[in-house]
Design a protein that fits this description.
The structure holds 2 protein chains of 2 kinds. By secondary structure, chain A is mostly helical. In chain A, 60% of the residues lie in helices and 0% in strands. The N and C termini of chain A lie far apart (56 Å). In chain B, the strands form 6 sheets. Chain B has a 6-stranded mixed sheet. In chain B, helix 4 crosses helix 7. Classes of the chains: A mainly alpha, B alpha/beta. Chains A and B meet through helix 1 and helix 14 of A and helix 6, helix 9, strand 19, strand 20 and helix 10 of B.
Chain lengths: 326, 446
């Protein structure tokens, strides 16, 4: 009997079964509860916005695959995920074509120039968002009241179309009006996917359980944000809200739980990731107090992400390394 | 502050249950590979082509760190220049023996072995070719002597930290849960605890060690062994049954002694701790008390049809070890466990002293590495037992950034394969890291 042909390769000869598509699918799945709630609260327009963002990103990625004849990447789920994240950070009444342009920009500017998956220094969703924030600021800053909102909110929103975060920073006494507990549950005005920290948190636990994310980054983010916010409130109680406000806004949750756990643009080592989170969270609080027109948290993350290689230098001492030996 | 964020390093691997069959049938023909005669690691030929030999005859004298080789069978030496393909793709020569008859050399047994002085114990261990298993079999005698003389060993990184052995750690479970060789030997020790006690006493006397720790996993029930540990006041360590590589040398030495031994400077036995397995201890007893050479390592044969541990004679080709049914469906054969084993290039590969397992993988279990670029997800960094960052190491290796690799402590890597196991991008992590290590060593840039 002839011997069968056998394969020779280096170990390990077993694998966990983790793949990139599964990783991306898990992250997308964990975003769906919050996205779904956003659609419920804001109606079909929100669904259109989300769909347009995802479509823009996917089609661009697919087109690039065809044009550059590279290994097809459109179906590994990353482009779709970034499109969804971008859509969730947009206002519910933003026009669909704005979302579409955002999705295209996310891939074209935020991902394509950097080669295959793993090269992008910034999260493509953030890049898309920043492009839109600079190009179409007025379209992004219109808000709608959610379906289940208090009728009083509806009346207020007609007069003040800004995000609650901005509203509070103009007049911190408004912070008292917002019940932290209800805001956490989902009683907020904000971007489509950034109104229910509770659902975002539930999705985050799903992500952790299925090993598609880490907890060190978000922990650092909320610690940094909380400390900076508390410090700010202590120093300038009349102009800056306290930590409980900052920590329960939907954008904090979205940025802190999902954008912080992006694998590619954040540090590799957990303790570096923690430090990264602290800096990003604190910077988000600082930028929220500044005059940035839109999404200060995203700007803060973008700035910190540029410093990721620096945070990669924070590493544990290897096993058995003796300090005296070179 | 190295475990600031406490999570379990390593991965979860189910531990196999295997039956134990003491002796494997000898094949018609044995081919025992010989290293070229080299003073640091080699063999000096001790037989000629055409010679009639008896079982246990010395056929290759171990030089340097190499263990001596003996024939596991009686017969005729057909050739001493048999060309053998090694798993790493290089060729070596081997001694081919046509097996016939069953006469053995008279063993020089010593009934009161514990009364022997240390030097004689070491000599008998060396004469029998008892070896420490690892990527390369290291003569136990040479290892013990090297730990006393710093100039006796030059590590991959050029230096040697040499302390004499003060602690012996004996594992009673396999490092890789896909094997059961050491567990089988442990069950033998359970049936004959006096042999284990003798082995420990002989090793203590030969090394001058003052501490012994036995390591079991949490699922192992060995009442006699535990009783022995209590009676002799030995350390007893229990590790997780399903965690790989909890039982790897440096890790288990650190758990047993409370200090992390230096890694990447020299072999573990030069840092004061000798980590060995219970099958080696039993071989020490066979060598010193019974005068029998070490020619039948405990090998786990793991196929889809059987999971057995047998004492297979060195020189047995794989085709004689693996059943016909398993051979027909084999697509990959890992010599060793599934994590750190080496893929065999053909079915003529002989079992050698280093072999602790033969894992046959059918087609559906053989995976293709996708080798996508690194995502920076950090799964490898969280799993690495040596607290390295395999992601950065693999990227440095991929782009030939050898200085970066060196500054990332690449020589601390123990090639456990956990990083490659968890990588979602399907990267050949171990291959990349090993390539970088190989590139760094000959240039003297270590």
């Amino acid at each position: 009997m002839r011997d069968p042909e056998i394969v020779v390769s280096m170990g390990p000869h077993a694998h966990s079964g983790r793949t990139v598509p599964r990783f991306m699918a898990t992250r997308t799945l964990s975003l769906l509860p919050a996205a779904g709630f956003g659609v419920y609260q804001f109606g079909v327009g929100a669904a259109l916005t989300l769909g347009a963002a995802v479509l823009g990103a996917l089609v661009t990625e697919g087109a690039l695959d065809v044009v550059s004849k590279r290994r097809p990447q459109a179906l590994d789920g990353h482009a779709a995920l970034q499109g969804l994240l971008l859509g969730m950070m947009l206002s519910p009444v933003a026009p669909w074509w704005v979302a579409l342009i955002g999705g295209v920009a996310a891939v074209l500017i935020g991902k394509a120039p950097f080669g295959p998956l793993g090269g992008a220094p910034l999260s493509p969703a953030i890049v898309g968002l920043l492009v839109l924030a600079i190009s179409f600021p007025q379209d992004l800053r219109q808000y709608a009241a959610p379906r289940t909102a208090d009728p009083a909110w509806h009346a207020q929103d007609a007069a003040r179309p800004e995000m609650p975060a901005d509203a509070v920073l103009l007049d911190p006494s408004d912070a008292q009006e917002i019940s932290t507990f209800h805001a956490f549950l989902g009683d907020q005005v904000g971007a489509i996917g950034a109104i229910s920290p509770l659902l975002l948190l539930l999705g985050f636990w799903l992500m952790l359980w299925l090993r598609a994310g880490t907890w060190q980054g978000p922990l650092g983010y909320f610690l940094g944000m909380g400390m900076a916010a508390h410090l700010g409130h202590l120093l300038w109680p009349d102009s800056l809200p306290g930590a409980s406000f900052h920590l329960t806004t939907g954008m904090s949750a979205l940025c802190g739980l999902y954008l912080m756990t992006e694998p590619i643009c954040t540090p590799v080592v957990p303790r570096g990731l923690f430090a990264f989170g602290v800096v990003a969270g604190a910077l988000a609080v600082v930028l929220r107090a500044s005059a940035l027109p839109y999404a200060p948290e995203a700007w803060a993350l973008a700035i910190t992400m540029l410093a990721t290689p620096l945070f990669d230098r924070i590493r544990p001492r290897p096993f058995g390394k003796v300090a005296s030996h070179a | 502050m190295n475990e600031l964020f406490l999570w379990r390093r390593g991965i979860r691997r189910p531990r196999i249950a295997a039956s134990f069959e003491p002796e494997a049938k000898l094949p018609q023909r044995l081919v025992i590979p010989l290293e070229p005669a080299d003073s640091t690691y080699g063999h000096a030929l001790r037989v000629e082509a055409g010679e009639e030999i008896l079982r246990h005859r010395l056929i290759g004298l171990g030089l340097g760190l190499a263990p001596s080789l003996h024939s596991p069978a009686a017969g005729t030496v057909e050739s001493v220049e048999e060309k053998l393909l090694r798993p790493d793709g290089t060729f070596t020569r081997g001694i081919a023996i046509d097996v016939s008859g069953d006469r053995a050399l008279e063993p020089k047994a010593v009934p009161l072995a514990e009364t022997l002085p240390a030097q004689q114990i070491l000599e008998r261990i060396g004469d029998a070719g008892v070896a420490l298993r690892g990527p390369r079999a290291i003569s136990l005698r040479a290892a013990i002597e090297a730990s006393r003389h710093p100039q006796g060993f030059l590590g991959a990184t050029g230096g040697s930290v040499s302390r004499s052995l003060s602690h012996i750690v004996v594992r009673l479970a396999d490092v890789d849960p896909s094997l059961a060789s050491v567990s089988a030997a442990a069950s033998l020790a359970e049936k004959k605890p006096d042999d284990l006690m003798l082995g420990l006493r002989l090793l203590t006397r030969a090394t001058g060690a003052s501490r012994i720790t036995l390591v079991l996993h949490k699922g192992q029930k060995l009442p006699n062994v535990e009783g022995l540990a209590e009676e002799l006041e030995l350390g007893l360590l229990r590790v997780s049954a399903h965690r790989y590589p909890e039982l790897a040398g440096p890790l288990v030495a650190a758990k047993a002694s409370g200090i992390e031994p230096p890694v990447g400077i020299g072999p573990l036995y030069t840092s004061g701790v000798l980590v060995t397995d219970v099958d080696t201890v039993l071989e020490v007893v066979e060598a010193v008390r019974d005068g029998l050479p070490s020619v039948r390592p405990f090998v786990t044969i793991s196929t889809s049809m059987e999971k057995t541990v047998r004492r297979v004679a060195i020189g047995t080709p794989l085709r004689a070890v693996i059943g016909a049914g398993a051979r027909a469906e084999a697509r990959k054969i890992a010599l060793g466990g599934l994590m750190a084993g080496i893929a065999a290039p053909d079915f003529d590969q002989p079992v050698v002293k280093e072999t602790d397992g033969v894992c046959v993988l059918p087609g559906k279990d053989v995976l293709c590495s996708q080798n996508l670029p690194c995502m920076g997800c950090g799964a490898c960094a969280r799993a690495c037992p040596m607290r390295l960052v395999p992601s950065l190491l693999s990227r440095a290796a991929e782009f030939d950034q050898l200085d970066t690799a060196r500054s990332l402590d690449i020589f601390h890597c123990i090639d456990c394969g956990v990083c490659g196991f968890v990588c979602p991008a399907g990267r050949s992590m171990v291959q990349l890291i090993t390539a970088a290590k190989t590139a760094l060593v000959p240039r003297g840039r270590v």
